[in-house]
Amino acid sequence: MARDEVPDYIHVIVTDGADYGAPATMMDGTLRVDPDKPRLHQWHMYELDAGNLDAVRRWQERIQHWADANRTVNYCGKWGIGPPDNSNGAASDYRRFPGHTRQAAQGWGSSTRRNGRSPKGRWWRLKEAGSARLRPEIGAAISEAFSHIAGQPWYKDQNG
What we know:
Elements: E1 14-15, H1 18-21, H2 23-27, E2 40-47, H3 53-69, E3 73-81, H4 97-107, H5 136-150, H6 153-159
Parallel strand pairs: 1-2, 2-3
């Protein structure tokens, strides 16, 4: 089948590095990438400095450089404050989450990302307890992030 023909079925293969998709394990040379076998490469991490735009951009640049060098596509599956075990209590400080969302939207460029928070978990809660409703400050930050992303040239180029 020629590359420009569309089959009746489509499969998307998603891979990630070791250690729950840590980007360092994707970029350390152990993840085999074959550009002739298209895949999406998912990564996620909990960064101690998740609310810092420079930290967001630093990770984005490293990961995008890796993806470009391997002629592949990556996306962020989760991004949030660390550490993952919440030993410092940061993942329970919901006041900081809107800032993390805004910084990530501004720093990721075309790497799709979402918040590293669980709707029902003990930490990283996006929703009000016992409800399907987003916390108001999270909903506002996500709306702002979507507006920012939709105004970017790379988004307009890809989405018309």
